[in-house]
Specification:
Helices cover 25% and strands 23% of the residues. With 376 residues, the chain is an alpha/beta fold. The protein folds into two domains: 269 residues, TIM Barrel; 89 residues, Immunoglobulin-like (Sandwich), CATH 2.60.40. The strands form three sheets. It has an eight-stranded parallel sheet with strand order 7-6-5-4-3-2-1-8. Strands 9, 10, 11, 12, 14, 15 and 17 form a seven-stranded antiparallel sheet that branches. Strands 13-16 form a two-stranded antiparallel ribbon. The structure holds alpha-D-galactopyranose (GLA).
């Protein structure tokens, strides 16, 4: 099954926008291997919009020859030679969001073209959709066309959450679907897209079908195509922790060739990634918040296959704050056994706790813990 756990990889859009080419894709594949990203589970290298030529050639999509002098297939072959998978972008309307030719009315021929090139992942956008044709039917057309090629191509539906895609996208053949509009590199965007708009969507996710709150902005620091002031490391740590708890696809959006140490520590945190990739495949849910005189916090919990609960205690306020899990039943543990608590960012065991866990969290930061009942 495709996407048995949330897909992991990189997408060109957040940092590079129009500034993509064959060398960038191949360099990124190289860095996946040398930086340890591949070993940590990141797999798909996805080229977003603006790889296309301005016109179809003989009815087929073609590439921008300045960016891809030898076409797309050799680039896909190179990515495969590194043991990685290759993704591309098109759109359910007549044109892509950046105005290039797209797949409406050409679904079968485009799906076959992608299969011929060795594409493993298709991000499929929603600009210039024909009026009067419903989103689910547009996406089903491409879902069926991809299936008909016989090649396993992960179908990433990008309808921006407009028509509740969590209710129909899996049936249309999607393994993931955007549940919101576009993210940008700011704390406000993380608050809106992550902390606000994912509440209640947990029922729709599971192995093979995932809500997608958009690609990561970790490590962008205000540079690139969706720059919006940028975030600090605590904010990126919170962003990554929430996406791990949400069982969201982990699609890196920064320039991995130039990651600093803090960005590496975040993106390569295997204990956080293990929460995201847990085989149980449950999406974490919003437990509650508390407002301490202007300070604001948010607690999320994700049940794991081994009976533990991963919990994120997020301080969304402006000063350090005491945050707590009050009663194990509040995170879904219904007997009152003592639990081991482990910090998944400092990689320390925090000892045995009886029914509560309280901690101090810095401004915009998170305490991500794994709470494991002790079996007698
Ligand atoms: C839309 C999508 C983005 C990106 C751009 C490309 O805005 O939501 O993620 O793919 O189009 O033009």
């Amino acid at each position: 099954m495709l996407a048995q756990t949330p897909p992991m990889g990189w997408n060109s859009w957040n940092t590079f926008g129009n500034d993509i080419n064959a060398q960038l894709v191949m360099d990124t594949a190289d860095f996946f291997v040398t930086s340890g990203l591949k070993d940590a589970g990141y797999e798909y290298i996805v080229m977003d919009d603006l790889w296309e030529a301005d016109e179809r050639i003989d009815g087929r999509l073609s590439w921008d020859t300045a960016k891809f002098p030898h076409g797309i297939k050799p680039v896909a072959d190179y990515v495969h030679s590194k043991g990685l998978k290759f993704g591309i972008y098109s759109c359910a309307g007549s044109h892509t969001c950046a105005g290039k030719p797209a797949s409406y009315g050409f679904e079968e021929i485009d799906a076959q073209t992608f299969a011929d090139w060795g594409v493993d992942f298709l991000k499929y956008d929603f600009c210039y959709a024909p009026p009067g044709v419903a989103g689910p039917s547009l996406y089903s057309r491409m879902g069926q066309a991809l299936r008909a090629t016989g090649r396993p191509i992960l179908f990433s539906i990008c309808e921006w959450g407009k028509h509740k895609p969590w209710e129909w996208a899996a049936k249309a053949g999607g393994q993931m679907w955007r549940s919101t509009g576009d993210i940008n590199d700011s704390w406000e965007s993380i608050l809106d897209i992550g902390f606000k708009r994912q509440v209640g969507l947990e029922a729709y996710a599971g192995p093979g079908h995932w809500n997608d709150p958009d690609m990561l902005v970790v490590g962008m620091y205000g540079k690139g195509n969706v720059a919006h002031g940028g975030c600090n490391d605590a904010e990126y740590r919170s962003h990554f922790s929430l996406w791990c708890l949400l069982a969201s696809p982990l699609m890196i959006g920064c320039d991995v060739r130039n990651m600093n140490a803090a960005t590496r520590d975040i993106l390569l945190n295997r204990e956080a990634i293990a929460v995201n990739q847990d085989p149980f495949g449950r999406q974490g849910y919003f437990v509650g918040d508390n407002d301490h005189g202007g300070e604001y916090s948010s607690v999320w919990a994700k049940p794991l296959e081994d009976g533990s609960i991963a919990v994120g205690l997020f301080n969304l306020g402006e000063r350090p704050s005491r945050l707590a899990v009050v009663g194990w039943e509040s995170i879904g543990l219904h007997d009152q056994r003592p639990c081991h608590v482990r910090d998944l960012w400092t990689h320390e065991d925090l000892g045995v706790h009886t029914s509560n866990f309280t901690t101090t969290v810095a401004r915009h930061d998170v305490r991500l813990v794994k709470i494991t009942p002790i079996h007698s």
